[in-house]
Amino acid sequence: MNTVNAMELSGVEDMATRKRTPNPDLDRLLEQARWTRTQLAQQVNRLGPQAGLQLTYDRTAVAHWIAGTPPKPEVRPLILEALSARLGRPITHAEAGLQPAMSVDASQPVDTVEELIDLGRADMDPSRRGVLAATLFSAALAVPAFQQSARASDDPVTPGKATTRIGASQVASVRSMTKRIAEILDEFGAGHARPMAAAFLVNTVGPWLRAQASAPVKRDMLAVASDLTYLTGWMAMYEKAHGLGQTYYVKALKLADEAGDHVTYCRTLRGMSLQASNLGHGRTALQLADSAAEAAPSAGPRLVAFLRGQQAHASSMVGNRHQAHTRLREAETALSQADNRRDAIGGYDQTAYLFHVSHVLMEESDLAGSINALKQSIRFQPTQERQGRVHAYAVLAQRQLRYGHLDASCESWNRFLDEYEHVSSVRGDDHFATMRADLAPYTKARPVRELASRAREVAAAKA
After folding, report:
1. Which one of 232, 295, 365, 430 has the lowest number of neighbouring Cβ atoms within 10 Å?
2. Which residues contact 298 (CB under 8 A, 6 or more apart)?
3. CB 264, CB 256: distance < 8 Å
4. pLDDT value at position 6?
5. Facing residues of 313 across strands?
6. pLDDT at site 88
7. H/E/C letters for each residue in 59-94?
C-alpha cells in the first residue's frame, strides 16, 4: 500500500504556484450530503485502502479543495464514491467541479458512463436544455470504430464503483422501459418522452452500468443502455437539437462497442445518417448509411430493410438514381421476408419504406409520385404513431401546395391539426408555423379561412 500524506495528495504543495479557482460545486454537494468537511475527509480516508492509499486527510484538506486547490487524480474517484454513497446517486467529476483523470495516453478522460450521466443530467435541467440544444452538429465528426470484440468483463469492486450487483432482471427492466418510452414518443411526442429517457438514464441506468455484474450481464446492460441512448439521441434530433442528438449517438456507439453489440452499433450509424440527411448533408448521410450496412453482421430481413431504405434516400441525395432504386428494391424484398413483429427500436415497416420511396422520388423532382407514395405511407401507419403522422401530414400538405392543390393541402393540414394538438414536439411547432406562413397568400380562399380559424383554436389550447 502506498502511504502518502494528505497534504501532498491534496495538492497543497503547489498552492503558491497555482492560480486557484474556488469550487462551489463541491461545497454545494457537501451541503446536500449534510456533511462537515471533516466527515468528507474521514470517508475518503476510509476508502483509501481500496485504491492502495493510506490517507490522513482532515478538514483543512477539504477546505483547500473547495478553495480551488484540486485534489490529485488518485483521490478524485474516492471523493466521488464517498459523495455518491452518501447521496444515493452517481456523482460525476463535472457535478463535483473536478477535472476527470486522464487515460494512460492522456488523450481520453474517464469513461463513457460518466459522460452519459453528465449529458443526461444537463438534458433533464430545463435551465440548461436550451444551451444543449444550441450545440452544433458536425458533418465531419470522427465516428468511433467498432472494435469487433466485447470489452465488458466480470467486475471487481473498485473505488468509485457502487457495490450493488445486478442481474438479468435489471437488463429486462431497461429493455421494457425503453419500449415504453418509445410508445410514449409515438403517441405524445418527444417533448414528453425525452425528459423521461434522460431521467431514467441518469437515475437508474447509470448506477446499474456502474454496478457489479457477470460478464454476460454487463454486456447485456451496456447493449440495452446503448439502445436507450440511441433513442434519446433520435428524440433530440427529431426535436431539432442536432448537436445534442449527435452527442447522444456517439455515446450510444461507444456503449455498443463496449458491449460487442454490432447490431446496435450499426443501427446507431444509420440514425446518424438519417440526421445528416435531414440537415441536407447528402454525402455524409450516404457515407454513414453505407458504413452501417457494411459493418452490419448477418442479420434478419427487417434490419436489412431498415439499412437499405436509408441508403436509398442518401443515394438519391447525391444524384445516384440507379443506386437509389436498387436499394429501394432490396429494402422491399427484405421487408417482404420479415415477420410482423413491431420493434420499439430500429423498427421498419411498410410505412417507413413508402416514406423512403417518397423521399427518393422527391429528390428526383417527381412531385406527383412523391405525393402518392406519401399518401400510401400514411395509410399504412399504425394508429398509435401520432407523432409520425404529425410530420407526414405536414410534409404532404407542403408538397400538395407546391403542386398547386390548395384544397388538398388544406385537408392535409386539417389532418395535421388533428394529431398536433395532442403532441408535444418542436418539429410539430415548426410545421405549425410553416402552415401559417405558406397559406398566408391565400387568406381569401374559404378552405384557408376555415383552417385558420381551427389553427387559432389549436394554438390557444396548446398555449
Report:
1. 365
2. none
3. yes
4. 45
5. none
6. 76
7. HHHHHHHHHCCCCCCCCHHHHHHHHHHHHCCCCCCC
Of residues 90, 83, 156, 157, the one with CA closest to residue 117: 90
CB 312 within 8 A of CB 327: yes
The three-state DSSP-derived secondary structure of the chain is: CEECCHHHHHCHHHCCCCCCCCCHHHHHHHHHHCCCHHHHHHHHHHHHHHHCEECCCCHHHHHHHHHCCCCCCCCHHHHHHHHHHHHCCCCCCCCCCCCCCECCCCCCECCHHHHHHHHHHHHHCHHHHHHHHCCCCCCCCCCCCCCCCCCCCCCCCCCCCCCCECCHHHHHHHHHHHHHHHHHHHHHCHHHHHHHHHHHHHHHHHHHHHCECCHHHHHHHHHHHHHHHHHHHHHHHHCCCHHHHHHHHHHHHHHHHHHCCHHHHHHHHHHHHHHHHHCCCHHHHHHHHHHHHHHCCCCCHHHHHHHHHHHHHHHHHCCCHHHHHHHHHHHHHHHHCCCCCCCCCCCCCHHHHHHHHHHHHHHCCCHHHHHHHHHHHHHHCCCCCHHHHHHHHHHHHHHHHHCCCHHHHHHHHHHHHHHHCCCCCHHHHHHHHHHHHHHHHHCCCHHHHHHHHHHHHHHHHHC
Q: What is the pLDDT of residue 140?
A: 61
Domain ranges for the chain: 2-100, 111-260, 397-463
Predicted local confidence at residue 306, as pLDDT: 93
Locate 95 and state its grid cell. Answer: 457535478
- Cα separation, 372 vs 95, in Å, equals 52
- Residue 66 confidence (pLDDT): 94
Phi first, then psi: give them for residue 54, nearest 5 degrees.
Answer: -105, 110
The distance from CA 256 to its chain's CA centroid, rounded to whole angstroms, is: 13
Instruction: List C-alpha distances in Å: 255 to 179, 260, 264, 369.
Output: 18, 9, 9, 41
Instruction: List, for the chain, all residue ranges whose pLDDT scores fall below the cut of 70.
Output: 1-19, 101-110, 127-136, 138-140, 142, 147-163, 297-299, 342, 344
Q: How far apart are CA 162 and CA 213, in angstroms?
A: 11
